[in-house]
Amino acid sequence: MNIKSWILPPLLCLSVALSLPLSAAQSETPGNDATLFSADGYRIAQYRSPTPAAIDQAHTLDTAALQALLQQRPDTALLNVQALEWRNGVFIEQEARMQIPGSYWLPNVGKGALESRWADYFRAQLATLRDKDSTRPLVFYCRADCWMSWNATRRAASWGYTALYWYPEGSDGWQDAMLSVEPGVPVPLTDTH
């Protein structure tokens, strides 16, 4: 047996495998993998993983652009959507979570499948924030590589909200830029469910 006869078949297999398109399970395109995305396109698992570069329904901001927006529109609502355990009608916080100063912390509204209590809470908070000005900018963030802010932004858009912004760098990017942060305090939820 010469060397060509045992090297050539594996090389041909590798060449064929490399020319095949990625399967849906290998793609990060929203909606392609039923284990990662719901039927309506929200991320439902592995929330801390690389996110897309943008969201169709919102403006994507880097840290400098967020600072510029805050200068232009000081009334901008910063919405921190980091998850937090909810047990027996109380948020359970193991350690302080840092956020951009002046943010509203709306825990759990960025999950892919929202229980009715969280959907009602989210809708009520958005309505309150936009009560007097329907053009008030809403900026959604979490931490870097966190799909919860992506989900929350898309959901707000599906409910008809506009002037939406997504800050995918989140509190991590803000801190990396050496900007000040403060401990987050969750906006209370009155659990009626």
Automatic annotation (TrEMBL):
InterPro entries: PQQ_CXXCW, Rhodanese-like_dom, Rhodanese-like_dom_sf. PROSITE patterns: RHODANESE_3 (PS50206). Pfam families: Rhodanese. Residues 1-24 form the signal peptide. Residues 119-183 form the Rhodanese domain. The keyword Signal applies. It comes from the Bacteria. Keywords: Signal. This is Rhodanese domain-containing protein.
